[in-house]
Every structure is written in structure tokens, then in C-alpha cells.
Amino acid sequence: MQTLMIPFTPRYFVLTACAVATVVLFLIALESFKAFEIVIIPLLIFGGLTLVGIRDLLQKRHAVLRNYPISAHIRFLLESIRPEMRQYFFESEKDGTPFSRDARALVYQRAKVDLDKRPFGTQYNVYQEGYEWVNHSVAPKPIATEKFRITVGGPDCKKPYSASVFNISAMSFGSLSANAIRALNGGAKKGNFAHDTGEGGVSPYHRENGGDLIWEVGSGYFGCRTRDAMFDPEKFVKIASEDQVKMIEVKISQGAKPGHGGVLPAAKVSKEIAAIRGIELGEDCISPPRHSAFSTPIEMMQFIAELRRLTDGKPVGFKLCIGHPWEFLSICKAMLETKVYPDFIVVDGKEGGTGAAPLEFMDHLGMPMREGVNFVHNALVGINARDRVRIGTSGKIATAFDISRAMALGADWCNSARGFMFSLGCIQSLSCHTDKCPTGVATQDPIRGRALYVPDKTERVYNFHHFTLHALAELTAAAGFTHPNEMRPIHFTRRVSNSEVMSFERLYPSLRAGELLEGTSDARYKDAWAMARPDSFSAKV
């Protein structure tokens, strides 16, 4: 049970000042009737504010009010007048990315089960370059009542997993608070969808509610590492054999900082995290930019085969942001040579989020999600392996349109990090790396973290997933399909200039089955395929 805690901290300064003022004014009022007449109005004001502050601490709906009693009401006041201020504050979405104020508001509304409809049509400028849409059908299908799912697991997998097409993307305990992990996993359990652990490993808070887990094994091998930070098969088996762990995801790179490795700032490395990860307290937790368990594409496939053996046949795959195209094609050649195929590949777009990375990495390194997904999809088609390898993706995905668009470009399912963070109450204060998150989501401060009330946020996580999939069902039916995996690039259109539109089929051309094996003339793949080597990530020259 969470208890009321009011430590000495600047966050409670307003409440403390109001309480002190109330006591002082009350004592003055007791001196005489004349004094009472003088102080009665300020006494009522400060007394009322004190009661409001106490209520803020006790309520469980708004984490920011629990962390900033009284003062946080200014935010809600501004939020309440937002519709009238839209003409001044509306943010256009020229590039089609979904995290404008309106998209964040949509996540909040679905999480809180508020009305997500609005009047007066789209807020987009539909004649502006970059606007995109999905074509509808004059013969729409009935809205699907079954939740959209996809089976993950190739011929070598003994324990395939039926995954939702919308899951929680990788966010580690350490980056997120214990209560945030509890709420995310509780929502995943209730909604029957998957929760990616992030490379921080499987913590006790992932296990509490029993939601399905995708265990991400990064280059730091947290949870399965030796004292000298190498991969430990025995420790791996101990966790991977847990029934709650449904799939194993080897993290090669992360979209927001490919080639950089993971970073957990020292400010967020608590004693608990240091013990769970096997690292030193008070130092930045940095996982290396590359794995020590393999150094070539062939060794990488052998490592995946070994992990599948150690798990007794659970789905094993890897996650990466696409960089040099010949490197991924080298992995494809290694698949052909070793006859070892991953059960899935998660393509992380460079637009994905992170709590700590250099600006240049976040802005200008790696391939965006759409191009990455389509590249991987076509490469697998080109080597006749697409039917045995599933593709997941992540990178600023929050709405049903985002999911359907990614699936049309080649994804089988989508992951979302920021969307689910918003459902927890994240307000994008951009303080993730400081350990001073105002909503208790991205912090290891136990006082800030307690503000996130797990039962309420669990429901919001479930609601966001549930209503987003409902919207996806409506969108899919309106386009004339029964499942979003039926959508293809031809069904989506993008405005490429003020006077010209183009279908995704032209923007993202497809390879034929086996085209890479036969010899392709497609400039996107021809030279890179010739440069790819199964025995090295370096290009053949």
C-alpha cells in the first residue's frame, strides 16, 4: 500500500508555504475579533489552497498533481483553454509524424476513455507536401470483432507465439520507474499483448503482473552476463525458460542511437538497478555498441540458433536500425549459407525515442522506419525467406493509421514506446535523463515514482491498446479489408508536391520473390548485394 509522504523538497514549497500561512493567520485570528476581521479573507484563501494541496497528494488520477500539489493546476488550467487557443498553438505535421499536440491528446483521450471525436474536419493541410492518406472502399467490410494477431515462429521454432499487432516497445526498468513497469505489464496482461523488457533485462516489476514478455538481450547481456560482461548461457537459460518470457530479441542497435550502445545515466543507477544489471553504483551504465558473442554475420546466425536451442525452441530474433544496406544483406547471405533464420526481425526507425543520446545521433544517423521496414521486407522477399521471418517495427507509432501504414510497407506488427508512455501520463517534459520526471514515469526517485498510481495507469495502458486496435479495425474495414496485413503500398497515397500525389507502390517499389538470388537490376539493392559478405560485416571491394 502506498502511503502519504511529504518530504522536504522544493516540489512541495507552494503547499508548505500555504500550510504555514494558514497556521500563522489562524493564530492571529485567535487574538481578537478585530484581527479576525482583518485576516479572515487571506485565511480562507490559504486554507483553501492547503486543502487543495492535501487533496492533490491523496488523489490517484494525476501523477503530476501528486508530485507538484497546487502548482500543477496551472498546467490543467492552460490545458482546459486549449481549444480556444488552438489557432495560436496548433502544430502542423508537415512530415506526417504523429507526435503533435493533437496526436498526444488522442493517446490521452483513448487512455482515459474520453471522447476522441472532433468537429470541423481534419486539422491537416491536405494540399501540403507530405500529407498522406489510405484509400477507402465503396464496399467496406464488417468491422472485425477478433483482436488482430500474428503468429511468430518459423519452421525451427517449437513454441511459436501468437502476438498482437500492437505491443509495448523496448523500455528498460531503470529508464522507467518500477511503477511504470508495473502498470505497463499489468495493461499488457489484461489486454493480452506483449511487453518488451528493453535491454535492462527482466526485473521483479516485469514479473509481478504476469504479462507476456519479449526479453531484449543487448550487448551488455544484462541478466545473462559474466563478471567480465560476456554472455553467460546458464544465466540466460534460467530467465529464458520462464513461461512469462515468450520471445527473445537480440538488440543489435537502437533507432535513436544506432552504433552508440545503451546509456543509463549515473543519476538513475540505483542500488537496485546496479544489483539487477551487475554494474557499479554511481557510474553511467553503458552497454557496448557491438556484441562480444559474435563478430560476423555467420557467427550472428549461429548465436541465434544457440539461443533458440537454449530456450528449447522459443522464437528468437533481433532488432536493429538499418544502416549500411550491404550489412543487412550480409546477414541475409549468412542466413542462406548457414540455413539458420531468425524467427523475427524488429526494424527500429531512427526517429525512435530515447532518454539519453547525442543530438547528432538522434537527428542524422540511421534509416527512418518506413524505408527500413520496406528494405528489410524486400530483402527477405528477394531471398525467398519472407514467409518464415516475421517483421516487427517501431518508431513514432501511436495511431491506427501509423500501424496500418507500417504494415502496408512490410511489417507484421508494430511496437510503440512513446504512445504507451503517454498513456501512463508522460507530458514530454524532456527530463528523462535528469531523474526528475514530474509524472513518475521516467525516474528512479522513489518519491516521484510513487505519484504514478499503478491500478489507474494499468487501466489506461489497457484502454489505449484496446481503443487503438478498435480504431484500426474501423480503418481496416473502411478500406475494404478484414485484417490490416491485407493492406499493400498501392492502398496508400502521399502528396509529393502541391500539385502531385503518388501511391506508396511507386514510392516504395517491391522486389519479386527470389529476385536477389536471380540477380536484380534494382539500384537500391544491386550494388549492395554485390558488396555483401556472409563472413564479414565489411563491404566486399
Please give a structural write-up.
- The chain has helices at 13-29, 33-58, 63-67, 73-80, 82-89, 101-112, 178-191, 204-207, 233-240, 271-277, 297-310, 325-338, 359-364, 369-382, 400-408, 418-424, 446-450, 454-478, 504-507, 515-518, 526-531, and strands spanning 132-134, 149-152, 161-164, 166-168, 195-196, 213-217, 245-251, 263-264, 285-286, 316-320, 344-348, 390-394, 413-416, 492-497, 500-503.
- It has 541 residues and is of the alpha/beta class.
- It folds into 2 domains: 10-73; 149-530, Aldolase class I (TIM Barrel, Alpha-Beta Barrel).
- The strands form 4 sheets. An 8-stranded parallel beta sheet has the order 4-13-12-11-10-7-6-5.
- α6 crosses α18, α7 (178-191) crosses α18 and α11 (297-310) packs across α12.
- The N and C termini lie far apart (64 Å).
Strand content: 5-15%
Strand arrangement, largest sheet? 4-13-12-11-10-7-6-5
Mean pLDDT: 89
Q: Which CATH C-level class of the largest domain is it?
A: Alpha Beta
Would you identify the CATH architecture of the largest domain?
Answer: Alpha-Beta Barrel
Shape field: globular
Q: Looking at CATH, which topology of the largest domain would you report?
A: TIM Barrel
Share of helical residues:
40-55%
Count the beta strands. 15
Largest sheet: 8 strands, parallel
Radius of gyration over C-alpha positions, nearest whole angstrom: 26 Å
Oligomer state equals single chain
Poorly predicted runs are 1-6, 83-98
- Under CATH, the homologous superfamily of the largest domain reads Aldolase class I
Contiguous helical run count: 21
**Number of discrete domains:** 2
Structural class category: alpha/beta
* Intertermini distance: 64 Å
